[in-house]
Predict the 3D structure of the following.
Amino acid sequence: MHALIVDDDPVIRRILTKFLPEMGVEATAVSTLADARAMLLSDIIFSVVFLDLHVHGQSGFEFLDWAENQKFDTPPEILLMSGSLRSETEERRLTAGHYLFLNKEDFSRDKVKSYLQALDIL
């Protein structure tokens, strides 16, 4: 299993790249959506993407739309993350989708593990 972490916050990237290998999940972290696209188009097969909804002023939802339109042999599960939702539109989009949402304000190893279990990654 391999996880891609997409977050501009170095603390979140550092925490997840520490937690995930302890759970048996290899982790690759990037800080831009462009780097995330490049990683998903590489030869690495990612089981899950931890996607921050706000990366350097860009919308994680735009990246999500892009990822959903790709023809991956094995599409990764996407776990959305944010420290705050900035609009009602974002809240509606989250509740309308079939994605797990990790609130970065309420972040723990146990929560990450339970979400990975819910996605059948662990």
User: Anything to note?
Assistant: The beta strands are 2-6, 26-30, 48-52, 54-55, 58-59, 77-82, 100-103. The longest strand covers residues 77-82. The chain has five helices and seven strands. The mean pLDDT is 87.
